[in-house]
Fold this sequence. Notes:
heterodimer; A: 399 residues; alpha/beta; Rossmann fold; six-stranded mixed beta sheet; four-stranded mixed beta sheet; 39% helix; 18% strand; globular; B: 120 residues; Alpha-Beta Plaits; two-stranded antiparallel ribbon; two-stranded antiparallel sheet; 4 strands
Amino acid sequence: MSAIATEVKQRRVSLTGNDAAAEALRQANPDVVAAYPITPQTELMHAFAQFHADGRVDTELVLVESEHSAMSACVGASAAGARVATATSSQGYALMVEICYIAAAFRLPIIMPLVNRALSGPINIHCDHSDAMLARDTGWIQLWSENSQEAYDNTLMAFRIAEHPSVLTPIIVNLDGFILSHTGEVLDVLDDAAAKGFVGEYRPERALLDTDHPYSVGALFLPDNYYEARRQQQQAILDCVPVIEAVSREYAELAGRSYGLIEGYCLDDAELVMVGMGSTMGTAKVAVDELRAEGLRAGLLKLRLYRPFPGPQIVAAIRHAKAVAVMDRAISYGLDGGPLFHEVRSFAHNQTRAPFASYVYGLGGRDIIVDELKGIFRDLEAVSKGADASATRYIGVRE
Amino acid sequence: MSTKTEPYTWKTMPRGSVIPEAGNASGYRTGSWRTYRPVWNPKTCIHCLTCWILCPDSSIQAEGGKVKGIDYDHCKGCGICAHECPINTKLMAKEGLSDEERAKGKAITMVLESEAEKAE
């Protein structure tokens, strides 16, 4: 995110990440929200339920008995023609994932903040990105937030992106559990008129409640048609990038906060580049500042968009690096090297000779501090001078 | 979904895996899944339409309150029609009868598809 001048009225408020996302949902005023509580998302829907109880939204709030039911209700409501949102975390996401694939295949633009939390087992309620990695192949767009301001902005923009007539694809807005969701932060929120004007009204191209134009949703696709349906779905999510860029430009003009698919920090002349997602990228900016003061040419590339994967944009931004560290707050078990590491390096194949190293960190809410991030850049400096980059580095684990 | 006419390409397929026309399942022949075929006997049928009401695939053909036949393009051979056919319930209730003997009393009986094809 970067700031630009704007005229629109905004309120400077102190909100947690959960409250910030709930505020965006309130302003978007969905027709239907179906949700089930799970730590650390619970307070997000708690805040939204309070808006509902106070009559500040027109939403039909459906309190279901599980996340599987929550997503099923969202699919039904969205197919009926409603603007729909929900939110979840970790195990709740795992329980709804069966229906998430279906929501994407049916091209239902459901909006879902995912308050990132480690997946069991062993059971743990704290932040990592294993739930987002479980979401990776479902066909949902994924936006990522470094702080609560971004969680709010991304959630508002998510409605415009998902509901765009050429996109019609559900969207996840990731925000780190507890680190963002439960931490107070000062941020600017649009006044209601500006936010509502930006989000606009959702006019579905098809709605099951439009009984004058009947059609069927959820039919069986046998080997003669399933492949074509999935091929089309893949093109649709790949093609949504220009819409994300256009919506983000429009939002920047309105709110004065500018978002790309990726964000560079001290990147243009950086020799040692760190690539990652989520709140740790904020901490890494401090590490970059301190290392720059020491004369080390450190830089950062943060992904705002993870699906569709902005591989060519990432590679174009890091081609000049002497060494690249890719940060993963998740493990793909049985695959040596983090999942983001493999995706970034795969796109960089034949594009750069710089060595890539995989850094896993922060599983189950394990803290990561500025000194550790500086240590990663120092390790990367050694890699750039020929040190072995092949072994996955597990940052902060007790050896 | 039905592809009676030109098959969809991935570019022409309706978005969201929907079927844009209502009620086109009749154009999609799904009867080939069948293992057992229901065979209807018009001589013993009393046209109570129990089979017509209960068939999950609307495959009992009826007209003017009378059973006319079975739609083998869509019948999956589940056997509900034969099971529920109430003809000769006294015979059905009699103990000591083989399944074959019980089936004799029905207006619809289930026959192995391969044997029904041979008989054709």
